[in-house]
Design brief:
Elements: H1 2-17, E1 29-39, E2 45-52, E3 70-77, H2 80-91, E4 94-96, E5 102-105, H3 107-113, H4 115-122
Parallel strand pairs: 1-4, 1-5
Antiparallel strand pairs: 1-2, 2-3
Length: about 130
């Protein structure tokens, strides 16, 4: 009787604890390749993001299906995180910066508010996993 109870309890624990609660489907993520941060003329922030286009197939623009390997989106906001959220809404995907290769800062932006970038990227909810 106890042996059967332990088996049932073990199966229940294995099923409950082996779930993937925080998994994200790659189709729902916008994989960021590069980012440009700028200040707008009105004093707001402007973010331009280059996202990898997985439906393009190869990295050659005119090869195969003729689709560009990257998608460029731009948005404005009163803060950098707001501008990034606006880009995410326009792309209709969640932005994932784990594959980001480069960040560009305009001179106007770097002179005024470069610390906001370091703070916002340091405390992002979705960070790249490190193996070291």
């Amino acid at each position: 009787m106890k042996k059967g109870l332990y088996i049932i309890l073990g199966v229940i624990v294995a099923v409950v604890l082996s779930g993937c609660w925080s998994r994200k489907e790659p189709k729902t993520l916008a994989l960021v390749n590069s980012v440009i941060y700028d200040l707008g003329d009105d004093g707001g922030y402007q973010v331009t993001i280059e996202v990898i286009n997985p439906s393009a197939g190869s990295g050659i623009k005119d090869g195969g299906n003729g689709k560009s390997p990257n998608i460029t989106a731009m948005s404005k906001g009163s803060s950098v995180p707001e501008a990034i959220r606006n880009v995410s809404e326009s792309l209709e995907k969640e932005i994932f910066g784990g594959h980001n290769k480069v960040r560009f800062f305009t001179e106007r932006f770097a002179k005024k508010d470069i610390t906001s970038i370091w703070i916002s990227t340091r405390f992002q909810a979705q960070r790249t996993l490190r193996t070291w």
